[in-house]
Amino acid sequence: MLLSEIEIARRLADPVESNRLTVTPILDAKEQFGPSSIDVRLGTDFRRLENINRSQVALNEGFHNEEEAYTKRVLLSADQRFYLHPGEFVLASTLEYFKLPDNLAARIEGRSSWGRLGLLVHATAGFVDPGFAGALTFELSNAGRLPIELRPGLRIGQICFFSMSRRSLIPYGAKHRAKYWGATGLQISRAHTDPEVRGRQRKPQ
Amino acid sequence: MPDAPKHRRTSSDLERRRLLYLLSEALEKLSRLQRILERQRSFVEAEYRRSEYTDVIDTLVNALASFRSLLIQNRARIGLFLRNENPTEPQLKAVNGVVRKVVDPVLKIHELLVLLPRESAEPQVFFMLADCFRKRGRLPASVILTNLLSSYEYRVEDILRAEMSQQELPDLKAALRGFKPGGSVLGLAFADRDNPLAWAILAHEYGHSIDDTRKIAYGIVRRVRFPHQITDDNRRKLVRWVAELFCDFVAARVLGPASLMPILLVEMARSTLARSSESPTHPPTPVRLRLTRKYLADLHLSTSGFEDLFEVYEFDYEKKLRALGATERKRKEDVRTLADGLLAPLAAKIASEVSSLRLRRFDGDNADRAKTLQAKLQAGLPASCHRRSSNDEILTKLASLKDKSSTRAVYAALEELNELPAASSEIIAAGWLHKLSSFEGRLLQTFPGRAAKLDLYGEYLERVDALLLKSLELAAVHNEINSPKG
Hints:
The structure holds 2 protein chains of 2 kinds.
Chain A: H1 5-12, E1 22-24, H2 29-32, E2 38-49, H3 63-70, E3 71-75, E4 82-84, E5 89-94, E6 97-99, E7 104-110, H4 112-115, E8 119-120, E9 127-128, E10 133-134, E11 137-142, E12 148-150, E13 155-163, H5 195-202
Antiparallel strand pairs in A: 1-6, 2-3, 2-5, 2-13, 4-12, 5-11, 6-10, 7-9, 7-13, 8-11
Chain B: H1 11-48, H2 55-73, H3 75-83, H4 89-112, H5 123-132, E1 141-146, E2 152-155, H6 156-167, H7 170-175, E3 184-189, H8 200-214, H9 216-222, H10 232-255, H11 261-269, H12 285-298, H13 307-322, H14 326-343, H15 347-355, H16 364-378, E4 385-387, H17 391-399, H18 407-414, E5 419-421, H19 424-446, H20 454-482
Parallel strand pairs in B: 1-3
Antiparallel strand pairs in B: 2-3, 4-5
Helix pairs in contact in B: 1-2, 1-4, 1-13, 1-20, 2-4, 5-20, 8-10, 9-10, 10-12, 10-15, 11-13, 16-19, 19-20
């Protein structure tokens, strides 16, 4: 069941900790709350792709180091700007930190005003598991034909919540391989920790 | 007066606490240096793809690994010590020996990081300083990472001039005419790049920047009427001592008792008093600590939660003093008496100069909010803001809404969820309170009986760092958006 704004608000103040939803900070509820969602803001942390000396994204044993070098970190101050050029893909994070109880799932989406400018906030991964805690990573890209000026604090996305029919028995934090739990900023891909990727690393090409 | 400890503790109790702090420092420095080196290795390997570039990093990593091994070999001894409220003298000696064998060389390895590519300071440093010193926009100071474990401050133009006189290049002196002052540079230890708790020391260093610009310490000393003739050398020394105390008071005014924590831990980590707490530029730390605590008490600021470290630091100092030879000890004691005699009568004047700066004062409300934020950190959440309304008040308002409630009523209820940004000083104070109340428990988890899980302590530090960095970032953006310009 998709939660309404009042149900989201109730969850944010729930006296029972195991039911409580955390979305912090809420700067301006009047602006941020929609009928069934809360707008989320852009954080200060970005990772831009550096591809001049990279031939491919290779799932080899150097993957993690490659990713570190392939994505250059840019941390803005609160009043600085970031220009996202047409066709460019960058990682960023929500300003907000989330903590979902074991009986709520969520989905992050773009806002239509920004979508109309060509801004996409995720490539394919907008689903948030119950039990997740952390800031969410945006996979930003500009599908338009002009650069888009971005700065921390802009409401570029929205998140909605789904109440589950029963609590998850393997919420994200307890999951066998919770790769992004507790992240306070954007996280680069940890695909190299997936067993099928690690298995492939062992076999010579 | 500062909150006094409930009862006088025995020396073995204080020695146990001292070793707990030292063990935590040993693990912390090991973990932080390891993190820096791993980052450097990732960078170098990905950029150059040639193993020889990582040789220097590997050498340092191997050295750190040997100190980790030393702790692991002594895990049973350390575990026993951690679980024993009344350790015996030989137990204390043994643990002290192990910890010293780790701390001393690890501090030296830190100094070698100057050989590696230099990372830049995290932007949250600037958020914090700008917030503490009410500077919107650019802070008139730079922050660089450096190899000295204690921080420092210098002015670029002073260094330029000094270099030039050394090199005897009179032509360049002429070129300096019309040189515009470039502002202060604050040095921060490499190890503390990601550690906002250690940044508290930068508030002291920024005080030097204020003093350099306004010549406050010089002005105070110039107005002193000495009962007897004073040499120029002694007058200069007094100006430096007054400047240090002025900076301690500046830091205490903007950050409260948390401002004292990094300097005390840095001093405790050193094995002897030699060259540590008394030099021509710095009055002995116990004098600074005593006068700053009195200043905090005059501001009606509680030091509850910080008292343990104050007391343990004093114990550590006395222990190191006793370890010196008679002549050296006498010299240290004489300097302490002299510094106290000179600075105590000037403390009120220094405090008045600090008040006149109209800095953002850390007051009782900030201290209360820091305690609320500490609870957030303990729950694993960022500590960047607080709500005016309690959960009960919010739920009551929400419950009063009906299907036909007006939009205005709905928004009024939702707005109860709005959060107010925390001051950076509250975040730093909350971080210290959290650390001081949680590190012993983490040490117990790190040495659970016969095992040693050193990575657990590293993960704990990394988590606290990440939450504090996120908190400072959130508060800065929150403030920017709430500002009239935002």
